[in-house]
């Protein structure tokens, strides 16, 4: 589960300093704007990167600028996501901008902390241009974080003294809240040597949702609806809809599309044993979420019968008339029967790699 910035900061504020801010949506604009202090910064709330470069962060100095800025931000769409909420925050007296993150690093079964003295930049590009500027430390969750690890991470005596407690608190939040990613960019040191999380990205392991009822309020409406229907659904930033059965198969499908040069719009797992009606419901739910350029269906027939998947797809297409390319890969139980039903209506492929290449080719025509 990926959180909006304002949601992430509400979690971090338990242990860390965050700027004072208020959320503005289209319904509460008139009530909120009268309470703002100027100057302030307005931040479009979307779950995709590159917000600043897209013009989604604006500084305003008075009420006149505020009105124009709000109209501009609410009319924006950043990487396919419409701006429905705006975070208005106080300006920070910035002395230095840094980068800090913690992720769950699966290859070594460790947590990895990442630090850089250059904040507010694209960390991936910086890693290529200046690999020595980025410090990394792996933390064994059994041992926990120690001072020598923080020294190895910061590698600067003055910054170590300023950031020691911050790093410990950030690590504490990461572990206690069952996060899989915590990124603060920029991490700001003010002229008064106060450490503030100027921006924050948080991803939460929703398998741990039963332990953290406070996160339930952060679920997207689409995720809540999917849970009611019995699907596992996660919205992503692309435009190619993905439907499959089994989390591993859906993740492999997303990876294949990404490698082929496409961007996936979602993770949608219909589960095992899906009948035609369930497949039809899943497709209906999928196309209602956002404007898609294409759909890739990848189903392995084990408990699920491939002919039932085909039947559900045909029934949905007859009712809704899909005006976008659909690529289908079926294998396993009743796959031949299912493919026979679909061969005159949809693009059929025999492998996942071919399916990924074909859907990317079709949506880019």
UniProtKB/TrEMBL annotation:
Transmembrane segments: none annotated. The keyword Nucleotide-binding applies. It holds the Pfam family ATP-grasp_2. GO terms for biological process: succinyl-CoA metabolic process; tricarboxylic acid cycle. GO terms for cellular component: succinate-CoA ligase complex. NCBIfam families: PRK00696.1, sucCoAbeta. Belongs to the succinate/malate CoA ligase beta subunit family. This is Succinyl-CoA synthetase, beta subunit.
């Amino acid at each position: 589960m990926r959180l909006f910035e304002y949601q992430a900061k509400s979690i971090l504020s338990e242990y860390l300093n965050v700027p004072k801010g208020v959320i503005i949506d289209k319904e509460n604009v008139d009530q909120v704007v009268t309470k703002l202090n100027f100057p302030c910064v307005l931040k479009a709330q979307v779950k995709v990167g590159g917000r600043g470069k897209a013009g989604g962060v604006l500084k305003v100095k008075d009420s006149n600028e505020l009105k124009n800025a709000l109209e501009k931000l609410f009319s924006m769409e950043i990487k396919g996501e419409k701006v429905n909420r705006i975070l208005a925050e106080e300006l920070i007296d910035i002395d230095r901008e840094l980068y800090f993150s913690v992720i769950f690093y699966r290859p070594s079964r460790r947590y990895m902390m990442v630090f850089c003295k250059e904040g507010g930049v694209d960390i991936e590009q910086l890693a290529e241009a200046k690999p020595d500027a980025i410090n990394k430390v792996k933390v064994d969750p059994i041992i926990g974080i120690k001072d020598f690890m923080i020294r190895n991470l910061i590698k600067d005596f003055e910054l170590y003294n300023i950031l020691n407690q911050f790093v410990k608190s950030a690590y504490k939040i990461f572990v206690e809240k069952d996060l899989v990613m915590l990124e603060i960019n920029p991490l700001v040191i003010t002229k008064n040597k106060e450490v503030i999380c100027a921006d924050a990205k948080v991803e939460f392991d929703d398998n741990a949702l039963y332990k953290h009822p406070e996160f339930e309020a952060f679920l997207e409406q689409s995720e809540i609806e999917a849970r009611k229907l019995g699907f596992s659904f996660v919205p992503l930033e692309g435009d190619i809809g993905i439907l499959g059965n089994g989390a591993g198969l859906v993740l492999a499908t997303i990876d294949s599309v990404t490698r082929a040069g496409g961007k996936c719009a979602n993770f949608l797992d219909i589960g095992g044993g899906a009948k035609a009606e369930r497949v039809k419901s899943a497709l209906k739910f999928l196309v209602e979420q956002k404007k898609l350029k294409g759909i890739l269906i990848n189903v392995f027939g084990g408990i699920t019968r491939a002919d039932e998947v085909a039947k559900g797809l045909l029934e949905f297409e007859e009712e809704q008339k899909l005006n976008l390319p659909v690529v289908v890969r079926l294998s396993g139980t009743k796959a031949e029967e299912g493919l026979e039903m679909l061969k005159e209506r949809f693009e059929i492929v025999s492998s996942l790699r071919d399916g990924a290449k074909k859907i990317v080719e079709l949506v880019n025509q």
